[in-house]
Each structure stands twice: as structure tokens, then as C-alpha cells.
Backbone:
């Protein structure tokens, strides 16, 4: 179908975008990559009176890496995050995960910050932000800038803490501490589809290569990204046998409460979480093992 | 309410084109209805099938998920622009012809644009890479085997043509 009539604003600066949202927020939607919003408009699942298009805000088209982590501006496309070598070197998980977001053509247009605000429980990048304990910077005319931590940002399925008068200007992904390996993997019905279950892991080792910490995050397994600390199963354990990874998978499967839907049943999802967790932790460990 | 209209100027296949359109005009419909370039096809209108893929400043995007007003001032290449300068078949088009890479042809414009851009990035794909490159485009006729063959043949043709100016 075709989208409903709408009044279009194409601001050239963030200040102008913020002013437009202050005036029209209640009846306006921010248009970023449009890879989630435009399908909803085309299917007439939503009909905002106005669109505030942020595609001219070149000042927000950046991916920057420093000692502390990676900063992604609101106009950086998924493909920009994927290509940025400096970001990959600082946090390999960014590229590992973003590669599984849709198809390359969608990643050329869809923005990483847009997918955070969209807060799809199947979205990869919200989960990465949650696992790394990152944050999102929001700007409005009323409050100026406020920074919201990932754990407070994802409020529910398709619901983030970004208010209707706010624009999300930047996401910050902190570099994991110490010697940490990472991995992302998922199972989907077709290449490029949303995952039935996806898992991202971080495994931290000490100077001699012994595991000292492990965390995992899940998509499609609850209303918001689910972070599970599985350190108890793997710290100081005998890694070579693989038993510790399997035990960690069991902890995750026990703690998660996925739901049935037309794509997969809850039991199958829990099974996927258990198996993927074990494999993912092992791969993350091997990335930094001595 | 009478709909607000916007003047949109886009360079399409190297030619500057202008039209006045409502804000909700999708780029795909701008090309098809306002500019009468009907090579770009619309299948699903929600980003899944890939039939509407065009190149925006050289980069493949879904023209069903972009508003024409958003790309004012930019350059777009459609399947009509994937030919040689004098109008003969481009390497990807020629390869589809040779390899029988199409049957009904509905999906073909999206494949041609996607592959044209892909070969710029990776001029010598393996069969597996070729399969991956077309993973975002649906075809209900061919079963994909001949399209994969066409990607590999297009890469060959492109190299040959670039070697003999
Ligand atoms: C076929 C297909 C497959 C896909 N598969 C996946 C997948 O596997 N995994 C995945 O994670 N995603 C997937 N996506 C979605 C894609 O990642 C989108 O890019 C992303 O969800 C939204 O980003 P966007 O820039 O396109 O945002 P838009 O569609 O423009 O906006 C989405 C929502 O966020 C709001 N918004 C966006 N940016 C801002 C901002 N800066 N400030 C305030 N509000 C903002 C909008 O108002 C809107 O409500 C898929 C999309 C398609 C079409
Ligand atoms: S019509 Fe655009 S992807 Fe199907
Ligand atoms: S040739 Fe008919 S859909 Fe591809």
C-alpha cells in the first residue's frame, strides 16, 4: 500500500530538528533510515501528521572511536558501523552483530541509533548496547541533553525512553574491560531475517588466560534485551572439556522466559538459547585464549 | 486538506530530473509515476523482496522505503541506467541474458542494480559470495541457480570490457 498524507520537515541542523519536535512532538515522528518506519507507514499501521527527516543532519553522520569506546551518531548507517575498521578493532562485537541485521541493502540505509530507539526485541543493536552497558544521548528543547543508560533505555517491546519531543543524537558503546573476547550468533529461518533466537557473549580472561567473567545477551527471548551473567558456571572451571560452556547454556535457558509465536515455540527458543550460548561462549573464549 | 507539494530535483541515470510531489511520494513511485521510468518494480512495499532496489549515490537501497523528498539533490541509478553509455546491455544485463537468469523478469531490475553495485565492491566473487550478495532479493521463478551463475559471468564480462577499452 501507499503511505498516508503527511506534512514533511527536512531540517538542516540538530537545533532546528529539536525546535520542530518541541513544537510538533505529539503529532510528529522522526524519520531516520526509514527501514522500520516506512514499512509501518506503507502498511498504514501508523499515521503521524508530520515527519521530521533527520537525513540532512550531516553533523550526526559519524562513527568515532577513542580509548573508552565507540560513539555512533544518529545518521551513521548500520553499514558505516560495519565498515569502520577502528570500531571493529576496539569492539569486534559491533561488526559481529551488525552483520546479522537484515541484508546489506537495508543496512545501507537503516541507522544504528534508529534501531535503538525502535527497540525491537528482535533487534541486534539494542542487545549489543545492553551487553556493553552503553548509553544513548537524547536532546530536546526542554531538557537540553540527557544521557540514558541501556538498562533504562529499553522500556518494553518497541518502546524506548526517547520522548516524542526528543531526538536521539548519539549512542555510546564502551569498550569491554581487560582481555575480553566476544561473539555473536543467531538462528533465523532465512538468511537476513529477524532471529528466532540470537545471542551475544563476552568472555574475560586474566593474564594467564583463565576465565574470570562471562556474560551473554539474548534477542527474541523477552520484551527487551535480556542480559545474563554466567560467570558462576565458567570462572575457574575446566574449560577444555566443554562442560563449563554447556553448564552456562543451561543457566541461561533456565533464566530466560521466551514466548510462543508463529515463528517458534518457547521450548524450541529455550533449546536454541542453551545450545547457542555454549557455542558462543567457547568462540568468544577462543578469540582471547592463550 | 490539500496536500503540501515539494519541488524535488534528482539526477537519475546522469540526467537532472525535476517534479513536484507530495511528501508521501515514495522514491519508487516518483521514478515510475512522475518520471515514467517503469523499470523499477514494486513487489512487497515493505523492504523484503528487493524488486525496487536502486542505487542512491551508488549505494543499493530500497526505493519503496525512501521518500522522494528525502533524496532531493542526490543521484539515483535505476535498471535503465545499468547499460553501456551507447545503450547496449551492461555486463550484468548481458550475463542475465546469457545465463537465463530471468523468467518472468519481475525481480530482475532489483537483481541487476544490486549486482552492479556489488561487483564494484568485489570484482571477483566466489560462488558462495555471489549467493550471499543476492541474499536480499527474492525470485519466485528461477530457483536462483542461474542468477548465481549470472553474477559470476557478469564479473567476467566486466573484467573483459574493462581490459579492452
Ligand atoms: C526487510 C527488513 C529486515 C530487517 N531485519 C532486521 C534485523 O534482522 N534486525 C534488526 O535489528 N533490524 C532489522 N530491520 C530494521 C532495520 O534495522 C532498521 O534500520 C531499524 O530498525 C530502524 O532504523 P532506521 O534508521 O531505519 O529508523 P526509522 O525506520 O527511520 O525509525 C524507526 C523508529 O525510530 C524513531 N527514530 C529513528 N531515529 C531516531 C532518532 N535519531 N531520534 C528519535 N527517534 C528516532 C522513528 O521515529 C521511528 O519510530 C529490518 C528492516 C527491513 C526492512
Ligand atoms: S518493493 Fe521494495 S523491497 Fe519489495
Ligand atoms: S524471474 Fe520471475 S520472479 Fe524472478
Residues:
Amino acid at each position: 500500500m501507499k503511505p498516508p498524507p503527511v506534512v514533511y520537515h527536512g531540517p538542516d541542523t540538530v537545533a532546528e530538528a529539536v525546535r520542530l519536535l518541541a513544537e510538533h512532538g505529539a503529532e510528529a515522528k522522526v524519520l531516520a533510515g526509514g527501514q522500520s518506519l516506512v514499512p509501518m507507514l506503507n502498511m498504514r499501521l501508523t499515521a503521524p501528521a508530520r515527519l521530521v527527516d533527520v537525513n540532512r543532519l550531516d553533523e550526526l553522520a559519524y562513527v568515532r572511536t577513542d580509548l573508552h569506546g565507540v560513539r555512533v551518531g544518529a545518521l551513521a548507517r548500520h553499514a558505516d558501523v560495519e565498515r569502520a575498521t577502528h570500531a571493529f578493532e576496539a569492539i569486534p562485537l559491533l561488526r559481529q552483530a551488525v552483520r546479522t541485521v537484515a541484508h546489506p541493502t537495508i543496512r545501507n540505509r537503516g541507522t544504528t541509533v534508529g534501531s535503538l530507539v525502535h527497540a525491537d526485541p528482535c533487534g541486534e543493536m539494542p542487545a549489543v548496547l545492553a551487553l556493553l552497558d552503553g548509553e544513548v544521548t537524547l536532546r530536546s528543547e526542554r531538557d537540553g541533553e540527557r544521557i540514558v543508560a541501556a538498562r533504562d533505555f529499553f522500556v518494553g517491546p518497541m518502546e524506548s525512553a526517547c520522548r516524542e519531543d526528543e531526538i536521539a543524537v548519539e549512542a555510546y558503546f564502551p569498550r569491554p574491560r581487560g582481555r575480553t573476547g566476544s561473539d555473536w550468533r543467531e538462528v533465523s529461518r532465512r538468511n537476513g531475517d529477524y532471529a528466532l533466537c540470537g545471542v551475544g557473549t563476552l568472555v574475560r580472561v586474566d593474564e594467564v588466560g583463565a576465565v574470570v567473567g562471562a556474560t551473554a545477551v539474548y534477542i527474541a527471548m523477552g520484551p527487551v534485551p535480556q542480559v545474563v551473567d554466567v560467570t558462576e558456571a565458567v570462572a575457574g572451571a575446566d574449560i577444555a572439556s566443554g562442560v563449563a560452556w554447556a553448564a552456562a547454556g543451561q543457566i541461561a535457558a533456565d533464566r530466560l522466559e521466551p514466548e510462543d509465536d508463529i515463528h517458534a515455540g518457547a521450548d524450541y527458543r529455550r533449546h536454541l538459547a542453551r545450545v547457542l550460548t555454549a557455542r558462543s561462549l567457547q568462540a568468544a573464549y577462543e578469540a582471547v585464549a592463550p | 486538506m490539500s496536500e503540501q507539494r515539494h519541488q524535488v530535483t534528482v539526477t537519475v541515470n546522469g540526467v537532472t530530473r525535476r517534479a513536484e510531489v507530495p511528501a508521501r511520494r515514495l522514491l519508487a513511485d516518483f521514478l515510475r509515476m512522475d518520471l515514467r521510468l517503469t523499470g523499477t518494480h514494486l513487489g512487497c512495499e515493505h523492504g523484503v523482496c528487493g524488486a525496487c532496489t536502486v542505487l542512491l549515490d551508488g549505494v543499493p537501497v530500497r526505493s519503496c522505503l525512501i521518500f522522494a523528498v528525502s533524496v532531493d539533490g542526490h543521484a539515483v541509478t535505476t535498471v535503465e541506467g545499468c547499460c553501456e553509455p551507447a545503450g547496449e546491455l551492461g555486463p550484468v544485463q548481458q550475463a542475465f541474458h546469457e545465463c537465463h537468469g530471468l523468467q518472468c523478469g519481475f525481480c530482475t531490475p532489483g537483481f541487476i542494480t544490486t549486482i552492479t553495485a556489488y561487483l564494484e565492491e568485489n570484482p571477483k566473487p566466489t560462488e558462495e559470495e555471489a549467493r550471499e550478495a543476492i541474499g536480499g532479493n527474492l525470485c519466485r521463478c528461477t530457483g536462483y541457480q542461474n542468477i548465481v551463475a549470472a553474477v559470476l559471468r557478469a564479473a567476467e564480462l566486466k573484467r573483459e570490457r574493462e581490459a579492452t577499452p
